[in-house]
Specification:
By secondary structure, the protein is mainly alpha-helical. Helix content is about 65%, strand content about 0%. It is elongated and about 125 Å long.
Length: about 90
């Protein structure tokens, strides 16, 4: 009885290398920086002019009035009003 037996050596090196390579590639893909997307807003020239003309005149008038009071030594801070505004602001935020 002459049976022929064939032996084959199995080395798991290729399987380990393949798994390691896949894991390394996944890590590298995750580490690549993504392109930062930026929001863009376009405001028409007409809107810019409307915004500046309305605010500038009103703000300038308030600033000028305050500056005159400060220069004349007549500007006084109402501490209670300031404290009340702080209280309202922080109370609204909960």
């Amino acid at each position: 009885m002459n049976e022929r037996v064939t032996m084959m050596k199995i080395h798991p090196h290729n399987q380990i290398h393949h798994s390691y390579k896949q894991a390394t590639e996944q890590v590298q893909k995750q580490q690549k920086p993504k392109e930062a997307k930026q929001d863009q807003v376009e405001i028409s020239q007409t809107a810019k002019e409307m915004q500046q003309s309305g605010i500038d005149a009103t703000r300038k008038a308030k600033v000028d009035a305050l500056q005159k009071q400060i220069d004349a030594g007549e500007y006084r801070v109402d501490e209670r009003a300031v404290a009340h505004r702080f209280f309202e602001f922080w109370n609204e935020r909960g």
